[in-house]
Design a protein that fits this description.
single chain; 381 residues; alpha/beta; TIM Barrel; nine-stranded mixed beta sheet; three-stranded antiparallel beta sheet
């Protein structure tokens, strides 16, 4: 039987100074001033529409994540207005994790302090690399010193914690370069590190003109030695690309990977909502382009899809199996509404292939399974 999981809120701010060649997110290069007030007003209307559509008045809010694009292009005043209006619509939640993504080239001390005063409790800073030549190839607007300054500001501005976003497997990057980048990040003492491999995605500049990337053997060596370096520095891996100091994991992302619920408001934002009464799970996608989203009286919704029962095992596993922590069959039943017996033969196959292991009452992905995650997921299609 479906039981409503925790409910998070994702807010998408789509504008960037310029589009990065590797980025396949819904982001739009700035051509004029950002219409902050109009966009905040539309976000709140979008939220109210979703609350009414899904009858969410009695659901508590688990976390908020403001992503993009580059949310730090917004003023602290606009973020304060947005968050104060959002929180008025939900019951008080003490110690609510509220994350805002920031790029080093768009922040200064006063702005970070303003974000903290507006209610942001966690900053996620898109560094990507500390090597100047790599930042140029990635199309980033900041340099290495700005990245270090942003991390230092985040540590002292009043937020509870901060994350550094760092890539590896970059154009012409070798093992020594990758580990040097990672060591620099660690030296700045972030509470959380998102450390992940650059992938070439369709509909990006890199896809049409691919750069030269490290080969598979070097990528594997970077991964192995990088994980060891992070562990020796006291960071615990809890997801394929997420590492944190003890008890400082990103609660918003954990809810997402555990197949929790989340409202998605803003241009192109995705959402997933469980309805206990109808025993259904619905996915939503909002209007993608800012011009359409800002058009008065136009519906915010672009796609509304009820998930079919046959798709739920894969949907659940696609999220859950990214985590290092195992899951119980009870959790599977509560998050999907399906009988656990339906996936037991598939879990047994995964165990026989050494992709998963059962420990007490939890099914967990093995290191071998994380290396061949696509093969493991294919079992549940």
């Amino acid at each position: 039987m479906l039981i409503s999981p925790p409910l998070s809120l994702y807010i998408h701010i789509p504008w960037c100074v310029q589009k990065c060649p590797y980025c396949d997110f819904n982001s739009h290069a700035l051509k004029h001033d950002i219409p902050e007030q109009r966009y905040v007003s539309q976000l709140i209307k979008d939220l109210d529409t979703d609350i009414a559509r899904f009858k969410l008045n009695n659901r508590a809010l688990h976390s908020i994540f403001i992503g993009g694009g580059t949310p730090s292009l917004f003023s602290a005043e606009a973020i304060h207005s947005l968050l104060s209006q959002v929180l008025q619509r939900f019951d008080d939640a003490p110690n609510l994790e509220i994350t805002l993504e920031a790029n080093p080239g768009t922040v200064e001390a006063d702005k970070f302090i303003g974000f903290a005063q507006a209610g942001v409790s966690r900053l996620s800073i898109g560094v990507q690399s500390f090597a100047s030549d790599k930042l140029i190839k990635l199309g980033r607007i900041h340099d290495s010193e700005q990245a270090k300054t942003a991390a230092k500001l985040a540590k002292s501005c009043g937020v509870n914690s901060f994350n550094l976003d760092l890539m590896h497997g970059l154009p012409q990057q070798n093992l020594a370069h990758a580990l040097d980048d990672l060591q620099t990040a660690i030296s700045l003492q972030p509470d959380h590190l998102s450390w992940y491999q650059l992938t070439i995605e369709p509909n990006t500049a890199f896809y049409s003109k691919p750069p030269t990337l490290p080969d598979d053997d070097e990528l594997w060596e970077i991964q192995q030695q990088g994980v060891a370096l992070l562990q020796s520095a006291g960071y615990q891996q809890y997801e394929i690309s997420a590492y944190s100091k003890p008890k400082l994991q990103c609660q918003h992302n954990i809810n997402y990977w555990q197949f929790g619920d989340y409202l998605g408001i803003g241009c192109g934002a995705h959402g997933k909502i469980t309805d206990e009464l109808s025993q259904t799970i619905t996915r939503t996608v909002k209007v993608k382009h800012p011009k359409g989203y800002l058009t008065e009286h136009r519906p915010f919704i672009d796609q509304l899809t009820e998930l079919a029962s046959a798709d739920l095992p894969f949907e659940f596993m696609m999220n859950q199996l990214r985590l290092t922590q195992g899951f119980s069959l009870t959790s599977f039943e509560q998050r999907t509404g399906l009988n656990a017996a339906s996936i037991l033969p598939l879990l047994t196959q995964a165990e026989q292939k050494q992709l998963m292991i059962k420990q007490v009452n939890l099914w967990q992905v093995t290191p071998h399974g994380h290396r061949y995650l696509n093969d493991l997921l294919a079992l549940f299609l």
